[in-house]
């Protein structure tokens, strides 16, 4: 069991992880076990290891979702308190051609791979290469599309284009919201995604300099997805609103069920995605859905609590 936990929860934890019982977790009894089981089934066949594949086989014919989780898994609380934030799939107006209105490019991954240069140098390096997938209305939207890692583009003729993550330049992600707080531009409470976008638009030059503080740069690919499917996560399956969780895979096994106990949120998720800003046991990101209204809610999501990672029982 100790070796399994070292793999599943990551060897970087500073404190040992102790198993517990489901009856000791507040909120577990009223979780939506059926919804979580459906999402777990979507990606469980992609987890390596005999114990996980046994759990996947059990999931395929489990008659009662809650009983399945309680008999197949044992919960392990992560020792570090976790900050939970929200992310979403933005829905943005765009054009396949550059116009006066649409002038901020979204780039495909170069055939030779991403240039290992920071964000500030990327426009010059990509100029004239024909890698533009589409054009957005302003630099703030293009920047936050990269932060989210996927998006729906609404074209002037009514068509829709789905974008997914294709690669990045390898630079470490830096939060521009944290940078704005450190510069005294906003307080922690004020630094939501909508407020940051508005500030960038109101201060074009300073806004560009602020965005360049984050050297990480993301490239995209066009996805063939139905409108009712979520974006593709790291595990290669569509994400499900308020059921898929982004985690640090060094800490939490991708595909593992995770019960979240936080301020206003007691919910059973499945770890199906990762994110540049999600590092360590103290961070996780809830996928909240698609569209502008969801984006506002996701931009304001900040809840502190704990993760309980469900690991297959040895017996």
Question: Would you give an account of this structure?
Answer:
There is one protein chain. The protein is an alpha+beta fold and 315 residues long. The chain folds into 2 domains: 2-12 and 20-86 and 234-312, Beta Barrel (Barwin-like endoglucanases); 89-223, Barwin-like endoglucanases (Ribosomal Protein L25, Chain P, Beta Barrel). The protein is built from 10 helices and 13 strands. It has helices at residues 2-8, 33-43, 50-59, 65-72, 122-126, 139-148, 176-182, 193-202, 204-212, 292-300; strands at residues 73-77, 82-89, 91-95, 104-107, 132-136, 151-154, 160-168, 218-223, 244-246, 257-262, 265-273, 283-290, 302-312. Strands 2-12-9-11-10-13 form a 6-stranded mixed beta barrel. A 6-stranded mixed sheet has the order 4-5-3-6-7-8, covered by helices on one side. Helix 6 runs antiparallel to helix 8 and helix 8 (193-202) packs across helix 9 (204-212).
Concise overview:
This protein has 315 residues and is an alpha+beta fold. It has ten helices and 13 strands.
Q: Give the strand order, joined by hyphens, for the main sheet.
A: 2-12-9-11-10-13
CATH 4th-level superfamily of the largest domain:
RlpA-like domain
| Share in β-strands | 25-35%
Structure class: alpha+beta
Order of helices and strands: HHHHEEEEHEHEEHHHEEEEEHE
Name the helicity range.
25-40%
Overall number of structural domains:
2
How many β strands by DSSP? 13
Outline the biggest β-sheet: 6 strands, mixed, barrel
Briefly note the CATH topology name of the largest domain. Barwin-like endoglucanases
**CATH C-level of the largest domain:** Mainly Beta
Mean pLDDT: 92
What's the overall geometry?
A: globular
Tell me the number of helical segments per DSSP (H or I, 4 or more residues long): 10
Amino- and carboxy-terminal Cα gap: 10 Å
- What's the Cα radius of gyration? 20 Å
């Amino acid at each position: 069991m100790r070796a399994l936990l070292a793999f599943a929860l990551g060897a970087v934890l500073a404190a040992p992880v102790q198993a517990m019982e489901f009856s000791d977790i507040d909120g577990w009894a009223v979780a939506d076990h059926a919804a979580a089981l459906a999402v777990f089934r979507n990606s469980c066949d992609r987890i390596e290891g005999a114990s996980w594949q046994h759990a996947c086989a059990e999931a395929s014919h489990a008659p009662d979702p809650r009983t399945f989780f309680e008999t197949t898994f044992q919960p392990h609380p992560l020792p570090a308190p976790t900050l939970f934030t929200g992310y979403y799939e933005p829905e943005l107006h765009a054009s396949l051609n550059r116009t006066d209105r649409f002038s901020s490019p979204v780039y495909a991954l170069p055939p030779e791979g991403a240039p290992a240069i920071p964000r500030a140098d990327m426009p010059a390096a990509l100029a004239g290469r024909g890698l533009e997938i589409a054009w957005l209305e302003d630099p703030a939207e293009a920047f936050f599309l990269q932060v989210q890692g996927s998006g729906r583009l609404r074209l002037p003729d009514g068509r829709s284009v789905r974008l997914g993550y294709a690669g990045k330049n390898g630079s470490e992600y830096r939060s521009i919201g944290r940078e704005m707080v450190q510069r005294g531009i906003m307080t922690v409470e004020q630094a939501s995604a909508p407020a940051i976008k508005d500030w960038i638009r109101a201060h074009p030059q300073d806004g560009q300099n602020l965005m360049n503080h984050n050297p990480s740069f993301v490239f995209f690919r066009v996805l063939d997805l139905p409108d009712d499917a979520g974006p593709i996560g790291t595990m290669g399956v569509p994400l499900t609103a308020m059921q898929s969780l982004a985690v640090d895979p060094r800490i939490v096994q991708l595909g593992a069920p995770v019960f979240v106990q936080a301020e206003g949120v007691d919910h059973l998720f499945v770890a199906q995605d990762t994110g540049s800003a999600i590092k360590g046991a103290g961070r996780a990101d809830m996928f909240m859905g698609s569209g502008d209204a969801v984006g506002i809610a996701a931009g304001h999501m900040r809840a502190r609590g704990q993760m309980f990672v469900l690991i297959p029982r040895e017996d």
